[in-house]
Design goal:
Elements: H1 8-28, E1 43-44, H2 62-67, E2 98-102, H3 118-122, E3 128-132, E4 136-138, E5 144-145, E6 150-153, E7 159-162, E8 167-170, E9 173-178, E10 181-183, E11 189-193, E12 199-205, E13 211-214, E14 217-222, E15 225-227, E16 234-237, E17 241-246, E18 249-251, E19 253-255, E20 257-259, E21 272-276, E22 279-280, E23 284-286, E24 290-292, E25 295-299, E26 302-304, E27 311-314, E28 318-322, E29 325-327, E30 338-340, E31 354-357, E32 360-362, E33 398-399
Parallel strand pairs: 2-3, 3-6, 4-7, 5-8, 6-9, 7-10, 8-13, 9-14, 10-15, 13-16, 14-17, 15-18, 16-20, 17-21, 18-22, 19-23, 20-24, 21-25, 22-26, 24-27, 25-28, 26-29, 27-30, 28-31, 29-32
Antiparallel strand pairs: 1-33, 11-12
Length: 410
């Protein structure tokens, strides 16, 4: 691929940005001696420099600029439902329902959910916008099966789901998950819904994903922090589509995101996923994401020091990578951003439509493109307008769960 030369001043800022990111992560992320539970703050994408003449809360991130400047965000919580972008932009969650306040972080009961708990809220049939009344760490006994038209909104408090099974979206639609710290998720006996629509135990185990999206659509996951789960941090399979994964901070995990059930599951050809404004941090190995069949718009993310590869796939997915910053580690064997899974060199992977458009490659990172360069080839993998990657070095965008204080801009 033809290399892009930047003016010396821009190149200087890009190098400075790389150094600032590395120093910041090493100073703030936990060592093995510090428990993950201490990490719930958002991670700045850049240094504290802000352009002169621009309102401090305005960053150019269309999601955050839609709601974070409002000091009355707590009163106007449901305005968030109008702020999504990308393929999951139609996810309204519980916008048209009542507010439901979670007060009880204990007493998790799959068969008879206790009022006041998160499980009780997500299993109700009507739309609900679910909020919390204090800091809490929720240890689930079984996977949390969320019904359609629900928003889980952790703004205002430090809300964690950890050290147990975590969130499952199975054959549902219109889900928003916002401002939750999800970590150390483990497998457990899988929950199921029988003819009476009441949850039951099955004889299978859940995978131990942070968030598992199965046969679902119109899903938006925003400003969450995810780390150290047994399987994936966020997996979307079995015909799921119309998904946006945005503003999340992910770290300390092997297989971060799987998009697509398996190479033979052709229903995933209709999958469309937007992955935008995320920060892929320290200790991530691979699958950011790993894609099968469908259409994936990967836009304005920051990737740092992946240990195997950043973006991979099989079964001819279309991958449109735009305006991202890729910062490779010093390991010469992990400079390549991309990895393709195929049986032999005779496979037709060179025809898969994978492009890098306006990405910034630092410390030797490189992206191997393939397929056709025509705009029509990426039409179904285009969901929003990408900002120039260089803008990520001059604004203070943030990713992960936020410390939102009531009465102040978030």
């Amino acid at each position: 691929m033809r290399s892009i030369r930047y003016p010396k001043m821009t190149e200087y800022f890009l190098i400075l940005f790389c150094l600032v990111i590395m120093l910041f992560l090493r100073a703030t992320l936990p060592s093995s001696a510090r428990p993950l539970m201490q990490i719930s703050e958002a991670i700045d994408w850049s240094s504290a420099r802000r352009p002169l003449g621009i309102e401090p809360c305005r960053t150019g991130n269309p999601i955050d600029d839609c709601w974070r400047c409002d000091p009355d965000w707590e009163t106007n919580r449901k305005m968030l439902a109008d702020c999504a972008v990308g393929f999951g932009r139609n996810a309204i969650g519980g916008r048209d329902g009542k507010l439901y306040v979670v007060k009880d972080s204990e007493n998790d009961d799959l068969l008879n959910p206790v009022p006041g708990t998160l499980r009780y809220a997500v299993t109700q049939d009507e739309p609900l916008w679910i909020i919390f009344d204090h800091d809490m760490v929720i240890h689930l006994e079984e996977e949390l099966l969320v019904k359609s038209y629900k928003t889980i909104d952790g703004r205002g408090f430090n809300v964690q789901i950890s050290n147990g099974p975590c969130i499952t979206l199975e054959n549902v639609s219109n889900i928003i998950i916002h401002n939750i710290y999800i970590h150390d998720c483990i497998p457990a006996w899988k929950a199921m819904v029988g003819e009476t629509e009441s949850p039951q135990h099955s004889e299978e185990k859940s995978d131990g994903d942070g968030i598992s999206i199965f046969g679902s659509r119109d899903v938006w996951i925003d400003h969450c922090t995810l780390a150290n789960c047994h399987d994936g941090l966020i997996d979307a399979v079995y015909g799921s589509t119309a998904i946006t994964i945005s503003n999340n901070f992910m770290f300390h995990h092997n297989e971060a995101m799987l998009m697509g059930h398996n190479d033979d599951f052709l229903a995933d050809k209709n999958m469309q996923v937007t992955i935008a404004f995320n920060f892929f941090g320290e200790g991530l190995v691979q699958r950011m994401p790993r894609c099968r069949h469908g259409y994936f718009h990967i836009v304005n993310n920051v990737y740092t020091e992946w240990e195997m590869y950043a973006i991979g796939g099989s079964a001819n997915p279309t991958i449109n990578s735009q305006g991202n910053v890729f910062i490779a580690s010093d390991n010469n064997s992990t400079k390549e951003v991309t990895k393709r899974e195929y049986v032999s060199e005779n496979d037709d992977w060179k025809n898969w439509n994978w492009r890098s458009d306006g990405d910034v490659m630092l410390n030797g990172a490189f992206f191997t493109p393939s397929g056709r360069e025509t705009p029509a080839s990426y039409m179904r993998a285009t969901s929003m307008v990408a900002r120039p990657a260089s803008h990520l070095t001059t604004t203070a965008l943030s990713a992960g769960a936020l410390h939102c204080m009531i009465g102040k801009q978030c």
